[in-house]
Description:
Elements: H1 2-18, H2 20-47, H3 53-72, H4 74-83, H5 85-90, H6 96-125, H7 132-159, H8 163-179, H9 192-198, H10 202-215, H11 222-245
Helix pairs in contact: 1-6, 2-3, 2-6, 3-6, 3-7, 3-8, 3-10, 4-7, 6-7, 6-11, 7-10, 7-11, 10-11
Amino acid sequence: MIDVLYCLWLRQIRGFLRARGRVISALAQPFLFLMALGLGFAPVFRKAGEGNYFAFLAPGVIGAGILFNAVYSGSDLLWDRQFGFIKETLVAPVSRIWILLGRALGVATVALLQAVLVGLLCLVAGNVFPGAGQIGLALLFALLIALIFAFFGSILGSVMSDAQSFSQIVNFVVTPLFYLSGAVFPLQGQTTFIRALAFCNPLTYGIDGMRGALSGQSIVSPAFSLFILTLTTALSAVLANVAFSRIRP
């Protein structure tokens, strides 16, 4: 089983590194978020007495990079189905959950590499220098976010058959998840409806947990966020396995 996990994990890593355009866009997109939103809203945030907007925005930018990178990995599964690679893996004498887990770990590793690089830039821009323990806790939240949305991408890649419409469906789903996660604006003071939607969103707990780990400012307890994210990861793995099981060799 370890060999299966390693091979599928390594395939995701190599596939990402070989696609130079994908590497550049994965790093450039969070940077553009940071510059556009940070430079635009920082004066307003400061005048409102909320402090350093770059420090507030850093976990949101990291979470956004993980979210988009992990969910779009579902397109790889969709193309693998169309070009026959999945058929070759499905006839192997191994449980399908191991195939899913290997892919998810590879996607999560890529997302974490991106999160580390972008996170360093964000923290320097926000003049925030956390300790090793705080960084380790933030990386744990980042890992759980990556696994959740890697499994979510696998669900979409398993049930969809049209590669052209994949990006449209993903944008339709992912955009509200990002903006209703507290990544860009504080959830304190928002309407009850907005807060209810936000706390139904697993990304909210990941970003709030990272923000609490890095700056000590969080809406809910980091332990509670870890609990919610762990449950959501397990549930998304089960749902991804169900969707993946519907694929026939």
